[in-house]
Amino acid sequence: xxxxxxLKERIEQGYRLGYDEALELxxxxxxxxxxxxxxxxxxxxxxxxxxxxxxxxxxxxRCSEDCKWCAQSKFHKTEVEVYPLVGARxxxxxxxxxxxxxVKRFSLVTSGRTLSDADTDRICAIYRRIGxxxxxxxxxxxxxxxxxxxxxxxESGVRRYHCNLETAPSYFPKLCSTHTVAEKLxxxxxxxxxxxxxxxxxxxxxxxxxxxxxxxxxxxRQTGAVSIPVNVLNPIPGTRLAGxxxxxxxxxxxxxxxxxxxxxxxxxxxxxxxxxxKHLEERLLQCGVSALIVxxxxxxxxxxxETDKRMFIRCGFEV
Length: 319
Hints:
Oligomer: single chain
Keywords: 2Fe-2S, 4Fe-4S, Biotin biosynthesis, Iron, Iron-sulfur, Metal-binding, S-adenosyl-L-methionine, Transferase
Organism: Alistipes hominis
Strand content: 5-15%
Shape: globular
Catalytic activity: (4R,5S)-dethiobiotin + (sulfur carrier)-SH + 2 reduced [2Fe-2S]-[ferredoxin] + 2 S-adenosyl-L-methionine = (sulfur carrier)-H + biotin + 2 5'-deoxyadenosine + 2 L-methionine + 2 oxidized [2Fe-2S]-[ferredoxin]
Helix content: 40-55%
Protein name: Biotin synthase
Enzyme class: transferase
Largest sheet: 9 strands, parallel
Strand order of the largest sheet: 5-4-3-2-1-9-8-7-6
């Protein structure tokens, strides 16, 4: 614990662990000590607050990309609902309903590689209407947009752009062949150039190694992400990862703790797969987690907001 205390002080002074150091820490440090360090850093940089956000599946299905995990890919045979871009009224009602329950961030998420200029116009109009009617911070997750589209989003009131790296750059080509990590990083760069904050994370449990989870955490740090959503794979029947073996509880806990240690100032956010780790959530709140996506996910059932709020209070946190 003395070594952990010294490392905490170094990190607070601005030191950031490299790949070899982080991997050695992960392999040699007992889980309780790893979580203690993660929790201390979470408290130092995030305090006792919990950041809640919610998402809306604003265009569903028939995605052109071949991501092995995704129920919305046209390459998979799933029972996911298919529909075009939602209307403004439906989006406003969804945002308002979440805001009434205390959720401070709201994002529209669309399937597909990107948006056309016409759909960008439509979604910007939706964001302007939400901003005028609902007291909520606006986020967007709309694929591989270009710089001009990012600027239009910013002008419409969006503050944060979400583009997941999904996994370690060395492993991503084994999971998707229709776009690259370089394209994702270019999109993130354009979002930053347009003045948007960055939300970027991904999924653990897709067959990546322990080493690749460390690589992934460092790659996210390099994006400058202020929010890092950590999804635990929820295998969907009909996808190519439907039979993926689950991670152990210890693998999940250690992965989340290391994500915090390597990204001490970011909001480490539990996201998809929460129904699979309900028994772990209170423990993860003591291992570096400071934020959650609440309510339903894109194609799966999420977590009840009021139940989540009671859990936060029970664990000694503030919403």
